[in-house]
Predict the structure.
Amino acid sequence: MGKLIAYVGCNHVANFAGGGIKIFEVSEDGGKITPIGSVDDRPKRPGYLAYAPKARVLYACDERKTDGRGPIRPASNVSAWRVDPKSGQLTFLNSQRTAGAMPASVAVSTDEKLLFTANHAFFDHVVKVVETAEGKWVEKFEYDDSTTVQYGLNNDGSIGDIQDVFVFTGHGVDPWAESPQGGGHAPASPHAHIVVVDPSGKYLIVCEKAGERVYVFRIGSRLELASVYQCPLGTGPRHAAFDKNTGRMFMTCEFSSELWSFDFDTSTGVLKFIDKQSTLSGFTGRNEPATVQVLPNGRFVYMNNRGEDTIVWFSISADGHLQKAGSVSVSKSDDPAGATRCMTLSPSGAFLLVPDRPADVIRSYAVNANDGSLKVLTEVPVQNPVFIQFVEL
């Protein structure tokens, strides 16, 4: 193996100070993390990163809501960055505005011809005063649109025009007091959180937490809906990841603090539920699961709790059922919104890299492939780290 590079997206702090993408070289065993560069001017809120290995281009969401009549600050956008094949340094290619507020994730098609974003939107509502057909004046509540956007990619990896937009509709209980996000308005309008391309490269999966739905689109010239999986009220599907060995999908549920497993039919794009397990171990406070990662050997799946503030791993049986196998604690946060929300397994699965936001560090854990257990290797200081993307040079 050549160099293993970790790109770390860092949110801004007060007055949009900080942010950008920090660049680290990581040893093969995860025991050494060395800072080698950064881009600090943009994006200011790179909440999610994705990599196209053939084009050697890194894509980053700028997770913000576009100014109203501004612009005062840059619009919410997705940007493309050329990766130097020898040094790992980044050169800006271009950016495109997102059709929707607060892009939460980005994914590249297998053939690297398409780019996708999930635009989460915010929780705030506005009140419009309108006159009904009967001549009565009423208040109408409106929210941001949440969308999935498909862009074309140019031959050099730069981002082309928007090819299609899917606008999500529906909502959960509005407001839902048991979901403190946004004053209880988290389920009041759609919130698409993750875009994931399945291992076959034929489908795009989108978790939309407010409507409690998992959307499956066929990948092509437009976003063609193949199936929708409806989850029960109070579930909140958030993030998903696939086991490339079996094609099974694993999903975290933000409202119910659960991990789910599914079989996935690549001939129809239909998900079939297998199992669900609680992600908590006696914790009773507010908790919001975030990321999910599958070990390359297919034996364990990892997720993190925001509230309990733990990384938990589950063993995966031959038929896809889950059993909690262990956990480690990460730094406590006063609010799940500011907690550690990501973790990334190295390409080999030898170690797990965690951006511990409350502690302002990146921490490396050795992974025991036999029992899934984690052991701290090292850590380095990074201000407000959010997401990590590995790239092998």
Observations:
- The chain has a mean pLDDT of 95.
- The CA atoms of residues 202 and 219 lie 6 Å apart.
- The chain has no helices and 30 strands.
- The first strand starts at residue 4 and ends at 10.
